[in-house]
Specification:
79 residues, 5 helices, globular
């Protein structure tokens, strides 16, 4: 089973959407200091406002999301 590139976190995705789809990402956002007021911001905006590299935040998010994608697809019947 494989996952599609579009299932990974992208710089234009909103924090709220990511947290809703992948609740386990809250730890990554907390580690990088992303708080509730930033939930309607994109990943790129959050990185810029927090003074971190967007690539670093994306890599951390992908690291926790990618292993769960196959299981999520099976639950939705998309395998």
């Amino acid at each position: 089973m494989s996952f599609r590139f579009t299932d990974l976190i992208r710089r234009d995705m909103l924090v709220r959407d990511i947290r809703n789809r992948y609740p386990h990402t809250h730890e990554v956002f907390e580690r990088f200091g992303v708080r509730t007021p930033c939930w309607d911001c994109s990943v790129a905006e959050v990185a810029h406002r927090s003074g971190i590299r967007v690539e670093e935040l994306l890599a951390a998010l992908d690291e926790v999301v990618a292993p769960r994608i196959p299981a999520d697809l099976e639950k939705r019947g998309e395998s």
